[in-house]
Batch of 2 targets.
Target 1
Amino acid sequence: MRVLVTGGSGTLGGAVVRQAIADGHEVVATYASRVGDADVSWVRMDIREAVDFSTVRPDVVVHTAYKQSDWRTTADGAANVAVAARKAGARLVHVSSDAVFSGNAGEPYDEWAVPDPCWPYGAAKAAAETAVRAIDPTAAIVRTSLIIPPRVTLPPVLFTDDIRCPVDVSDLACALLELADSTEKGVFHVAGAEALSRYELGMLVAKRDGLDPARFSKGPRNVPGPLDVRLDCSYTQSLLKTRLRGASEFLGW
């Protein structure tokens, strides 16, 4: 399978690139300003404008590229990638986010929950989902949560009221490629099996990395944006061989 990964030099994109190589796929990756460290074909691409995949000829496009503060990259870019993938006849896996939800539901959000974003990034991600679904009804739209790479830098203050379902980046990469190699379409939730506050997550990271927990303060977030956003992944997990581990497990506790 020839796999094109947009945003291949990012945290998630890089993990998808490495996993695709390990799975024996031929990989091409795009970048905006710097190439990644994987030994693949790199293509500089500005997805804010119309793009063309005809020279790449991918079988699958895994779209991970975004920029949180830029509507054109996150929303318009997703539409441009979807159009290019459709023209190339490629299977599209679009990565979305739990940011499309306000956190006001009072219960976990399943794959059929209607987005109700309460901040600009969430609105851009929701717009991207709508565009992708309209352009390519056969695409897989994958909402995920807080992505945890092998190395994590903790902030000095860890929020006690900001709750997510952290996912290991390698678990997410495997799930994306598994969906890419399927005919499943629609919305899927791929997040960790455990809901934690940023403080609880930070304490797990500190223990794993041998850091003194006393170095970190805790408190409420006090900035705009959703707080308690938990993704119900039970439907998607029933389709996947990849097991979506909770943070306590993948961080070794």
Target 2
Amino acid sequence: MRKGILLVNLGTPDSQAVGDVRKYLAEFLMDKRVIDIHPFLRFLLVRGLIIPFRAPKSARLYRGIWNDRTGSPLLHFSNLQLQLLKLELGDDYVIELGMRYQYPSIELALHKLKSAGVQSIVVIPLFPQYASATTGSVIAEVMRVMRRWPTILPLAVRGAFYDHPLFIDAFTEKIQRYNRGSYDHILFSFHGLPERQLRACDPSGTYCLAQKNCCAVLTEINRNCYAAQCHETARLIAAELKLTRADYCVCFQSRLGKQEWIKPHTSTTIRQLAASGKRRLLVVCPAFVSDCLETLQEIAVEYRQEFIAAGGEELLLVESLNESPLFIRALQEMATGIAVHPLV
């Protein structure tokens, strides 16, 4: 009995051309879970303000990371993860890759699994920390597609894996390749979210952003909070590296618009670190399992320039998990539900 596995990442334009970037941004930003405001206001904001100005700029940024041979880094590494997972799982599994936005779509990937005659499907959103705008949106799209099927196959969704031991080990191993003694500080930079999306995950309505440092420690109250899961990921990696709390900090990047986003912001943090005398920063982005625009451009180029302009000497990005054998084993565990032996 063959089993289906669906890996899902965010998505990428088909090319770095302005038209393809515009098409990608339109699908991405019109998702009601990404910009969670009234549909008419979202349409005016996205179509009237964001896309006309952001598409040409984003196209230039994509040209800076696009590979002439392999194309989009996100799509390249996601496909590589799929191929490596196939080698681990063997012929009993059919594995497809879907992107939440653009090609290959979730709908296409599910159609391929259905056509292959699989008897069940496991969906693995490739977002370590849960957010409505990422994992939540993936689940909603899978349900939209499958509810039209005459026979809805047994379905399992692997949710947040922010604390999966092999995921933590994979990032730890990446960081250990660097001489930490030559860096003054380690920065864990996660993708940001509007604060209102954090509040929406607080069923009590009285805890999130109402208590000081409410996200700093993962508890039963905030266990579904994106920011709290980010802090927990950083804490677990730091523990593996034997870092003290003074050795690292947690911040959030990629703000959009004027509304309040999760703090502290990465841009603000690196300027503060430069002002405090930190000269060399090592930056880790554990919200991303594949290198993409947010790591290769935003961190490695834009924030590096900002840090140096503020008085720093060097800011270096730790590459994402990409083809990490430890991460592939984490995916194997999530796909099968069976613990795998550690690498020797």
